[in-house]
Amino acid sequence: MSANLKDSLQMLIRFWENSAEPWGAKDNQSRFIYANKKYHSLLALPAHFSVEGRLDGELPASTADFQDAFQNHDRMVERLLDRVTSIEIHPFENHAWLQPWFFDKYPLIDERGICRGTIFHGRPVDNLILTSLNKIKLPESLVFTPPSSLFSKREWEVLFYILHAFSSLEISHKLHLSQRTVCNITQSIYKKAGVSCKRGIIEYCHDNKISNYIPQSFFERCQSLPLISE
What we know:
Number of strands: 8
Domain HTH luxR-type: 148-205
Protein name: LuxR family transcriptional regulator
Shape: elongated
CATH superfamily of the largest domain: PAS domain
Distance between the termini: 34 Å
Pfam family, one: PAS_4
Keywords: DNA-binding
CATH architecture of the largest domain: 2-Layer Sandwich
GO molecular function, one term: DNA binding
Oligomer: single chain
Number of helices: 8
């Protein structure tokens, strides 16, 4: 870690130290340069634990298992020289339940225009208004209660992933079902909606304003998902 790089962030660090939201910075090897008190609290890190010079995988936190994903996000920021946002789902603040948080990453560019690393900022997901969620194409205000009783709980789960452009194989991995079972559930959904194809069910859900449901099971495991706008 370059001491000069941290020195160049001192003005921002003074703000971050007083912020009620998690802020920090990493170098271009994804090693922490700095993280504020709120970030330490969010990850429930031990008292006096220093993140400086460490990789995500070296932190005693549930996020450690997602080091590869975080580094991919960092490299994307450095390549695009623009913000990259992910939704992080973990047992934050040492809670027994999982919570979703947005994490924005920005390029840390020096006076010569060279990207020296990334700045990160966490935001709580309060209203669940997402521009995109992995493969979501349209802005949605997501709800947790099934919009109707037309479909079963499992059908709503499968439908959620269908609407967000996942293949039957991807859905089977997400829900730990066989691909044949997913196909059978999909056909049941089509039959109940009176459609015969994926395009038909997408149009049906949009027309009936039932495309904004997100199943609770989506938040039943830790995840790190990039939000990619097209």
